[in-house]
Amino acid sequence: MSATNDMTVGSPDLQRDQPKSRVERKREERIERILRVASIVLAEHGYHNTSLEMIADRLDLTKASLYHYYDSKDSLFEACLERVALKSIQTLNEISRSEGSATERLRALIVGHLDILISSDRELARLYVQQLDWPESMLDSIRRWRSEHRAPFDRVIEEGISTGEFSPRDDLVARHCMFGAMNYLPVWFRSRGKDEDRRVIDSVAEELVAMFAG
């Protein structure tokens, strides 16, 4: 009997191979739109001044329709943060484990982080890095995601220090300055076209990497 015939109809392997139905695709598209719009409204008004009614109105949905996907404001906002956290953590982990020197990988990590902040997921990323007044119920998740987000940087920096490639005057201060500078970029950055944006990102990355050269 072949391996295919051995599979039961409900097996996980077979289910993964099956294409998503039109209903499933539409649901995923709507959830993606809800998360993006909710993040924009949250970034504009802050956690305490944002309501589900405001988000539903921006989406042109009824509040009842929004409750079909998320049963509370906290569950919706936590989903917003989780989306960008997991996506950025995966990207940064891949960069940290790529080929190249510690200097090259740290520069690539900084560029990758800045790209997320100002290009691919601007609204979501700002929520992720900003110190907003989040409710107690969300703090453990946020702390965990931020710790996992920092880990790829820490691995590369520690590798560079151990091999002598990096010799910062104060390792801890340099790391705090690096993250502070990166996360402040959305406050002052204004896009002036693809080429100029790339020049700014590369320039910031070079300056931050230089802090670890000693």
Describe it for me?
There is one protein chain. With 214 residues, the chain is mainly α. It has one domain (20-210): Tetracycline Repressor, domain 2, CATH 1.10.357. The protein has helices at residues 3-6, 12-17, 22-45, 52-59, 63-67, 73-96, 102-120, 122-129, 136-163, 171-188, 194-210. The protein is elongated, with a radius of gyration of 21 Å. Mean pLDDT is 85; it is low at 1-9. Residues 51-70 bind DNA.
Which key features would you list for this structure?
elongated, single chain, Tetracycline Repressor, domain 2, mainly alpha
The helix-and-strand class reads mainly alpha
CATH C-level label: Mainly Alpha
Total helical segments? 11
Task: Describe the main β-sheet briefly.
Answer: none
Number of strands: 0
Shape: elongated
Percent helix, as a range, is over 70%
What is the domain tally? Answer: 1
Rg estimate, integer Å: 21 Å
Low-pLDDT runs of 5+ residues are 1-9
Query: What is the CATH homology-level superfamily?
Result: Tetracycline Repressor, domain 2
CATH topology: Tetracycline Repressor, domain 2
CATH architectural group = Orthogonal Bundle
- Average pLDDT, all residues: 85
User: Distance between termini?
Assistant: 65 Å
Strand content: under 5%
Could you give the order of the helices and strands?
Answer: HHHHHHHHHHH
Summarize the structure.
Residues 1-25 are annotated as: Disordered. The protein is mostly helical.
